[in-house]
């Protein structure tokens, strides 16, 4: 009886290690394990010219070709430099588009008249 219990517990323990790994969460730490809960992504600051080009591509791909870029603001954020662009359409409605340090374009956000 003792041998049967030890054999079954050994099999269960082996299977749990095989599926969960030695750390209990798959065997290898993920990106959140690298430093106090924050992933360590490299900062890839893009320049103002590239940000303007990315905004123009965003406008062209979202059927906003008649919108023009009025100004671009450079904003320091904790992970690098972000760019906020103000755009304006034919009806004088203004919008804001954000480009983060990794090159993701977000928006448009309507601005009050």
What does this structure look like?
The protein has 113 residues and is α+β, with helices and mostly antiparallel strands. Helices cover 29% and strands 27% of the residues. It has helices at 2-20, 48-61; strands at 68-77, 80-88, 94-99, 105-110. The protein contains 2 helices and 4 strands; from the N terminus they run H-H-E-E-E-E.
TL;DR of this structure?
With 113 residues, this protein is of the alpha+beta class.
What features would you highlight for this structure?
single chain; 113 residues; alpha+beta; 4-stranded antiparallel beta sheet; rod-shaped
Please render the helix and strand layout as text.
Elements: H1 2-20, H2 48-61, E1 68-77, E2 80-88, E3 94-99, E4 105-110
Antiparallel strand pairs: 1-2, 2-3, 3-4
């Amino acid at each position: 009886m003792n041998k049967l219990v030890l054999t079954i517990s050994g099999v269960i323990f082996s299977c749990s290690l095989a599926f969960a790994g030695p750390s209990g969460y798959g065997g290898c730490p993920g990106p959140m394990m690298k430093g106090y809960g924050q992933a360590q992504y490299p900062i890839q600051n893009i320049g103002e010219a590239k940000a303007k080009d990315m905004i123009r591509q965003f406008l062209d791909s979202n059927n906003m070709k008649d919108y023009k870029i009025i100004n671009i603001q450079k904003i320091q954020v904790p992970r690098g430099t972000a760019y906020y662009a103000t755009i304006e359409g034919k009806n004088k409605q203004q919008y804001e588009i954000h480009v983060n340090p990794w090159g993701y374009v977000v928006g448009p956000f309507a601005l009050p008249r």
